[in-house]
Amino acid sequence: MSEFATSGEVPEVLFWVGCAGSFDDRARKITKAFVRILNAAKVKFAVLGQEETCSGDPARRAGNEFLFQMQALQNVTVLNGYGVKRIVTACPHCFNTLKNEYPALGGSYEVMHHTQFINTLLKEGRIKVQGGDFAGKRITFHDPCYLGRGNGEYEAPREVLLKLDAALVELKRSKQNGLCCGAGGAQMFKEAEPGAREVNHERSEEALAASPNIIAAGCPFCNTMLTDGVKHFNKEGEVVVKDVAELIAEAGEL
Amino acid sequence: MIVAQALFGVLLIAAIALFARNIRRVMRNINLGKPEIINDRKAERWRTMALVALGQSKMVVRPVAGFMHILIYVGFVIINLEVLEIVIDGLFGTHRIGAFLGGFYDLLIGSFEILAVGVLLACVVFITRRALLQLSRFHKPEMKGWPSKDAMIILVTEIALMGAFLKLNATDQVLAQRGIEHYTTAGSYPVSSMLQPFFSGMSDGTVLAFERFFWWFHILGILAFLNYLPYSKHFHIILAFPNVWYSKLEPRTLVSNMPRITGEVKSMIDPSVPPPEPATPRMVAGVEMTERFGAKDVFDLSWKSLLDAYSCTECGRCTSECPANLTGKLLSPRKIMMDTRDRLEEVGKAIDAKGKWEDDGKSLHSRISEEELWACTTCNACTQACPVNIDPVGIIMEMRRYKVMEESSTRPALTSMFNNVENNGAPWAFGPDKRMEWTAEG
User: What ipTM was estimated for this complex?
Assistant: First the structure.
């Protein structure tokens, strides 16, 4: 972003990479797939790089409002300093925080989830995908709580997935009734409380019951939880968990 | 006759006065919560109330229970028109004062009877479902004892009231057909006419005694039920409406801001910004309450959370959708609401007894454990499932805030996460210098 600022250019959108997208090995693949899509669509985008810091979502959900606001106010200062107007992110938690919670701290932006952004690129014809490789495959989509129930976006990821020539099968609990992967509310960073089983096992079992070839996710944390769940049932040889962006990048041979 | 009228008048006034007193008590309790102004987006609020409360849009997500609930609800609302007539007759010694409406009266009375049967049957199904079908959400730990009894009392009372109403009509018409003074033939009786043969063999005096008994049983039952409401989960029939009107309209996953902390953090980041003035203590129940971070007790929750607690009818749809509860964790969103309400009632009673609040050494945290609080994934399945837009996540968040910011109590792994966010700007132990490493990979 600072390079854009120096040259006086204005990027079309700021890609908010997020902590998972920057540091988590699995999520980095999603970041790179999304960047391939952005490049293919000739989107002039910027990232904050070292100036980006945690959105504060896990701190706030774990009850540490001081820490949340320290992160958030720092980010708002940076974003406002660059005059950022539009943000896209591949993480529904960053998406929710930036979109809904930053305005109260003086940061109002147009924030999109990457599935919404990809959907627009496809609709505008800026990228094209050949679904051929996916013909005959079964894909099921797991709704991230912070995208679906939280922000009412159920259709964008589905519209994108329908561009692949695969059969899109719905899970028993989907959309408004979607079952959490177990990572939200800062659970990602702690052990689960004592119980009969893990939430991600419950969800993965349900996803596997739809006998998909691919479980599509739209959140780096859901991705981790479902990948672990599929492994728990020893199905990692037959079923893969992939982000919507990865599937589109593959289909577009990007 | 005049004695009966006077007696009825006195009982009616007493019942209404008692109900008004109970409503004032509940409102006082709700206002122990933190003040919060909710009056934005009025048009949307009325629309939501029309759809969710009046239209029961979230009830029918489960079609069978939803349909039967609507049957009871419509029956209850419409049959109240008949209660109005009964009250007028009781006060003025008239008989079927609405009879002048002619054909329309026939239609009304006929529909009341059919609805009464509908209500009765739905209640029988609900009792059967609770007693025989072992639906797990009706048998969770928080439902043991009073909550289950409360549900049964409500259903049995409704059956008894509907039964009395139909038998009242049957005896009334037997008397009217015999030309007994005061009893006029009016209305149509599609259901109670079938009950008439049961009474037609009895003497005039016996039928009259039955008629009077059913009349008093029915109306006194209704007045008693009215005053049972504020002590019961059945209070939802009234509170559902304001509760939905005041419900959260923002995206479900938005967690509310704490402006006081914003002031403190701003002055920490920039020393030239003066720290915020300390919050002025609030007078609650005769004592000064200092503002806390998060919620220790009911006083620290928004009044809306307390209205939520009173509006909960313990249906358990939240708990049956909760991922934590589904996987055997201790958390049950319904229990969060019941605990909040029970604590609020406990506090209210103590204030009534002493005239002001005295710390009893207990709090919300005496009822809701850390294990419950830390099991929530904030997925909002509960807020989605609640037919009256109750928000258990809001309470959980406020209680977590108290634990973390006032007591520094959290799960060890979360402490590491906090340290990482504070030192590295990420929940993991990677520094900012590693943020762009992904660009170097293929």
Answer: 0.96
